[in-house]
Amino acid sequence: MNAMTGGTVDGGDRSRALWSSTAAFTVCFAAWTIFSILGVQVKRDLGLSDFEFGLLVGTPILTGSLTRLVLGIWADQYGGRRVFTLVMLAAAIATWLLSYAYDYTTFLLAALGVGIAGGSFSVGVSYVSKWYPKEKQGTALGIFGAGNVGSAVTKFLAPAVMVALGWQAVAQIWAVALAVTAVLFYVTTKDDPDLAARRARGVEAESFGAMMAPLANLQVWRFALYYFFVFGGFVALALWLPRFYVGVYGLDIVTAGMLGAAYSIPGSIFRVLGGTLSDKYGARRVMYWTFIGSVVCTFLLSYPATHYVVSGIRGPIEFTVAIGFIPFMVLTMALGFFMSLGKAAVFKHIPVYYPGRVGAVGGVVGLIGGLGGFLLPMAFGALNDIIGVWTSCFMLLFVIVAASLVWMHFAIRRMEKAENPALRAPRDLPEAAALANPAPARAPAPDGRTVAAE
Prior knowledge:
Residues 435-454 are annotated as: Disordered. The protein contains 19 helices and four strands. It is mainly α. The strands form two sheets. A two-stranded antiparallel ribbon has the order 1-2.
């Protein structure tokens, strides 16, 4: 059964829609993060500052983010199959043109065009969710979202191609992959059941303004902040870590790309687990796991290498405290794991709360999350330039996730108290309960004694 129309959905069509969408999103994500590798070479060739590098790798993320809202609404209105195909073809053209860039300005312009590949996410969320009932949407969207692994594909393959054939070949090969995937996606999938049902009844799509109505709800923006961290932070680190490994540990670009992929893979494939856990235990509980685990990881990663001099009995005692290479890898992979759970849990909420507006709500949540992927690399670069501490990127992420955890907890408590008045009463403090429920007033009796009022 389809969650929206109540009609019967063919299992084969449903599976093809899911797996074709996942494959397409993987290719789109690989193209979307292409500057995580090309950008390192461009930085060297053009002598860019850390801020300029952050702007370059973040520019595709900006385009992908800003287009998500509109593309998500169009997917609800005109069908995800058609919109997804057009997005991939447009991204293929832009990625091919990237190979002709020759200075910083033309690289930025090309990056704006490549970024449309990132807008495919809200299209896919709208398209995939319409094939599944609510109780299975978490798992389905988790599988689709695992297309984030495209970032790891780029980090594994692009360095080798770039060393062997040059960076222009990377852009051209990725462009061809996008075009071929667009054709295969269109011929292997069908229009979603909701669109087919609307066409059969002759019902027009809702207006753009009606689709935007849920955005007046503060809850949507709270979900967007969650996604700013779990997705925006994931993308930002996927783009930034190769640079971090080169700058901090002195690795070559090929090795740095491989290690960046080691972060991206668990941050992508475990999104499927996040969707399954959200279906089984609830998205709210999974978000608590995500934020608490991320607070611990970012706190530990924030600690900069520090040299201490202690006045000892026999003279000064010197020692250095720093996160070693292996512990750093383990902590970043753990952070990627928690982020992957959270990415699935956030989007488990949306079809449940806004079943008829998945494209619009998912679009704005994805937009804010994508903006995190654009703004955070620039913030990382600016912090490096200003305070000169490599771990400042994790300090910033710690502040964001801690704020998200606090807001989520108090918002949930307010919702629980609104739904269950019994929770408003003080608990575990008998004296507080007495203050909240004072004893009835006592009235004087005719003989002067005091008695309790009825």
